[in-house]
Amino acid sequence: MVPARSVVLAGIKHCGKTTLGRLLARRWGVPFLDTDAELEAEFAVRHKRSAGFRDIYRELGEEGFRRLEAEVIDALADGGSVRVIALGGGVVANPFLSPDALRKLGFGVWLDLKLEIAYPRILRRGLPPFLAGSADPEAEFRRICREREPKFRAFAELPFGIETEEPAETVAERLASAIEKEYSK
Ligand SMILES: Nc1ncnc2c1ncn2[C@@H]1O[C@H](COP(=O)(O)OP(=O)(O)O)[C@@H](O)[C@H]1O
Ligand SMILES: O=C(O)C1=C[C@@H](OP(=O)(O)O)[C@@H](O)[C@H](O)C1
Ligand SMILES: [Mg+2]
């Protein structure tokens, strides 16, 4: 069953938004879109050179990154066909987004992954710029997660808890069923 509205995945860094979003899109045969990739594409157009989102964050600083992110997301909210959208981890806390921009994107899903699972993934991939400068990156990540939690809760029409480390394909299977069940209510 293909959802009637776009499905929008939110959650802390490395909860699996991008990986699971791709798997859901493939399952439903709809386009996949990642706001970090959209931001990279917009940066490339404006600056006539390409850069990854971590480098863009370093170059523009937090405020510049969030302003560009908000512009990209506001543009996406203008419509389009049904698709799966993975948000960047900080989108729900972006102060530059238009009111209702996220709600207009589609059906909000919060991938509520335990920090104890997410943080080792972050260490494996290397600290992102927003943690790299901290004397205690794990405590800083914990603080950011705590601060964002009510925003994820408010955003989500469907909170989806992920309690254990499982292959992404297994999680995607359960997630797809949970979303499909919501739609058939
Ligand atoms: N279910 C999973 N089990 C183990 N590793 C995963 C799982 N889902 C994602 N990962 C890994 O975690 C890292 C972050 O995943 P990603 O999908 O980019 O997360 P996000 O977009 O939420 O930051 C990647 O290295 C990815 O391969
Ligand atoms: O949590 C954050 O503030 C960020 C998360 C990243 O996305 P992912 O959550 O997809 O890694 C990316 O948007 C940027 O580095 C900022
Ligand atoms: Mg991602």
Automatic annotation (TrEMBL):
Superkingdom: Bacteria
Subcellular localization: Cytoplasm
Sample GO molecular function, one term: shikimate kinase activity
Main localization of the protein described in the UniProt heading: cytoplasm
Requisite cofactors: Mg(2+)
Keywords, comma-separated and alphabetical: Amino-acid biosynthesis, Aromatic amino acid biosynthesis, ATP-binding, Cytoplasm, Kinase, Magnesium, Metal-binding, Nucleotide-binding, Transferase
Sequence positions that bind substrate: 36, 66, 89, 148
Function: Catalyzes the specific phosphorylation of the 3-hydroxyl group of shikimic acid using ATP as a cosubstrate.
Protein name: Shikimate kinase
Gene responsible for this protein: aroK
